[in-house]
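Sharing a chain and its predicted structure for anyone who wants a worked example. Both blocks are below, sequence first, tokens second.
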Amino acid sequence: MQKLVEIVAGVTDGSLTATAVLEEHLGRIQARESEIHAFNLVTADQARETATKIDADVKAGKKVGALAGVPIALKDNMCTRGIETTCSSKILQGWKPPYDATVVTKLRQAGAVVVGKTNLDEFAMGSSTENSAFGPTKNPLDISRVPGGSSGGSAAAVSAGFAAASLGSDTGGSIRQPAALCGVVGVKPTYGTVSRYGLVAFASSLDQIGPFTSDVRDAATLLEVISGHDPMDSTSIPQAATSLVSVLEHGVKGMRIGRVTDLPEGCEPDVLARLEAAFDALRKAGATIVDVKLPSLQYCLTAYYLIAPAEASSNLARYDGVRYGNRVEAADLNAMYAATREAGFGEEVKRRIMLGTYALSAGYFDAYYGKALKVRRLISDDFARAYKDVDTILTPTSPSTAFKFGSKTDNPLAMYLCDVFTIPTNLAGHPAMSVPFGVGADSMPVGIQVLATTMGEQAMFKVAAELERAS
């Protein structure tokens, strides 16, 4: 399978055609998609039209974009004009947005070829892609196991070679955790560096779009394309995209890498062994390993599962059967609201809406939501202290390798614990990425998570590139 940068180089110099590259990927989709179910929708006809135009532009000597001819998949919570966008929910089944998300516009302008919309946990609420209204996605490396979530379809699409890259969204680990479980690279950028305009909201203060790729250089290339200020997003940071590809060969000599001495418990021994191997590799490459403490990490999961559901309760109130989405007819307006939401939302979405509504209700706001926001502040303060002494921090991405289907569905708390290492950076708004680094005792991939402070993507990518070389 060719890398993103190899495809761009080949299409640009004429040694490859975008059409041939696309057909190769569509062939893989045809061969395995019925088994994997990475996609909710494959947009083969539109993709062929795009590839044909790119080839014509190359032949005519016209300048083509930084992603010319690259097949890319989009998580099905990013708006695509005239193309169904469902969030893997029955309540939005059949809805076709009247506009493109900003990241989709940037991809098209760069010459990317969108091959389809990928499956996810409904409204991005889950860690296994078992909560999709349209059925689960399977891990291409072992179809008896989950691909992670909520961006499981996007991770599986890259892991299976259905697309050279994909985009996902990360609210509490939904890019990094499936990247780790599927053996690919996944990046959650600093909050505000990638526009959220056109991303269907789950928790607006936490959501961030980022790339899945097969290696670190491809991730840096794609992130450079989709980053940058967008006036359509009020939370967008007003500065240009940071150069990332340029730092990948700099190495880590002289860098200080943080080892968290008070990590939450529950991590599998084979995953911790790979983390120690990562520290050894960075030490050999010239980095210094520094112990740091993050005492508030023990409260992250609790704070997140009050803040995120509270924001979800507010954001999902718009799905009422009136303005858009599906409607269940009933005797009166209130009955229609109830019937529509009962039929349209799955169990996990209902669970989080109820939890969030309770946390925001009169008499409980200060005790729950207000207190969670104070904990969020403590988490940010702990990170700020740590980053005075280190340039980046290393943790496991996931406490375990990919687990079997159904093993956690009856225990929501066990499922929530899958994100114990990824949630803190969402609460702080910092960047983090998962890099494959060997396998566990079951021969499934282990992801190492590289964390950095706000706008610290360059340091993060230096470390990620070094880990990739070492692995």
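Comments welcome. The chain has a mean pLDDT of 97.
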